[in-house]
Amino acid sequence: MQKIQVITYNLNNNKMAYEDLLDYINTLTFDIVLISIQEYFYTINLPKNYPYVYYNRMYGIHALILSKMQLDVKFYVYCFGECYLGNKGCIISNINSSLIFISLHLKDGENNLALRNKQINYITHLILKIGGPVILAGDFNYRFTKQIFKYCKDFDELDAIKRQYGYLENEICFKFTYKYNENVLNNTRMPSYCDRILYKNIKLSNVTNYNIINQFINSDHKLVYMSFNEDINNLNIFNVKLTACKSSIVSCFLYDNLLCISFTFITLTLILYIFLWKK
């Protein structure tokens, strides 16, 4: 039986927030740690306290898997941005053909519920035939239909999706996860629980903790974590073929090489201009 922790943290592109995350990771002793990071565009320094590290990224979305034992990890990237470009999408990690971990960041904006539903529907249909455990962690960006002062599922936009697709989530007994100025809620935005961890095919009794790290103040989001126990070596093995979206592959290449492409384009334009001017 492995002790596993899942972490999601929207870093708001703040290097100090990533340092907070690293400090927290360095205290962990779990057998496996599954980490979803959103809105971080810098190159990350990988943690060094675990012998096996598996990592992939798409723009500001990162999937980081730390383990005390060697794993077989395959990554699949899907982009949801306009024209398949943008800072929204997901990374699906197939771990030992026994566990699916999805790091995601869905469409923002209080008026974009239909688009968020479309994106979560797309992700769900990718994994519908999987019989093993599935974990979704990230910035879902779901809001509440009215002003609330603590979590209430009756006004939670995400609750309908959970019921529709059979996703489970432990009881939320912690403070809002968004939006903060240091450690104070921003009065200009309706507070929400954007940052969540959902799962399927994991016994509720196996989940031992679901909470936030309140003392981290360098992002406008809170770090959310969930701990559970599972023997991933004895789970129902599934054999579902996932294929990375070709548009996502192209868009990731364009984004990762945007500076180089822009510089090349400007240089060629100047050369062409000088050539035509001399003529």
Automatic annotation (TrEMBL):
Organism the protein comes from: Vairimorpha ceranae (strain BRL01) (Microsporidian parasite)
Keyword vocabulary terms for this entry: Membrane, Transmembrane, Transmembrane helix
UniProt cross-references to Pfam families, sorted A to Z: Exo_endo_phos2 (PF22669)
Official protein name in the record: Inositol polyphosphate-related phosphatase domain-containing protein
Domain Inositol polyphosphate-related phosphatase: 1-236
Organism taxonomic ancestry: Eukaryota, Fungi, Fungi incertae sedis, Microsporidia, Nosematidae
InterPro entries reported in the protein's UniProt record: Endo/exonu/phosph_ase_sf (IPR036691), IP5 (IPR046985), IPPc (IPR000300)
Gene Ontology terms describing biological process: phosphatidylinositol dephosphorylation
Record-level Gene Ontology MF annotations: phosphatidylinositol-4,5-bisphosphate 5-phosphatase activity
Transmembrane annotation, as ranges: 253-276
